[in-house]
Structure formats: structure tokens, C-alpha cells
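Trying the structure run again after the queue cleared.
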Amino acid sequence: MSGPMGRNSHGAVLVTGATGFIGRHLVRRLLCSGRRVLVLARRRSGVTAAARVAQALGDVASEVDLLEGDLAHPGILQQ
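Done. C-alpha cells:
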């Protein structure tokens, strides 16, 4: 079964904190290993999650699946 970008959906990994130092390096490493990456990011200070992820991940931002939300509201994970 393939997910977006032809990546194996059985190996999907959810990454929180992907806009931080460790998270952005982890995301790149996972993508290089062929994993499908889901990024959970929240809006902060009026900046959308998509904009924050694009700024942090640069050229690989389009290779992740983005969920905008917060773990304080766990319903986001049921999508």
C-alpha cells in the first residue's frame, strides 16, 4: 500500500516538534530512509502550522503530510 509521494504507508511515523532543531533533523532522516512522515504542528503567534513547517523544513516540507493541531486536543489524531 502506498501513501502520498509513493512512500510506504505501513511505515508511517508521526513527528511532533518537527519545527525544532531535533525534529527537523529527524524528519529529514526519516524521509531519506523512505518513511512516510506525518507532522503535527500548531499555529503559533498568528503563524500557520504550514508556514512554520515550511520555514523549518525548507525543501522537504512538501514531502510530509501536515496535521495542524495540538496534542492538548487529542481528537486531532483521529483524522
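Strands lie at 8-16, 35-41, 65-68. Worth checking whether this holds up in the mutant runs.
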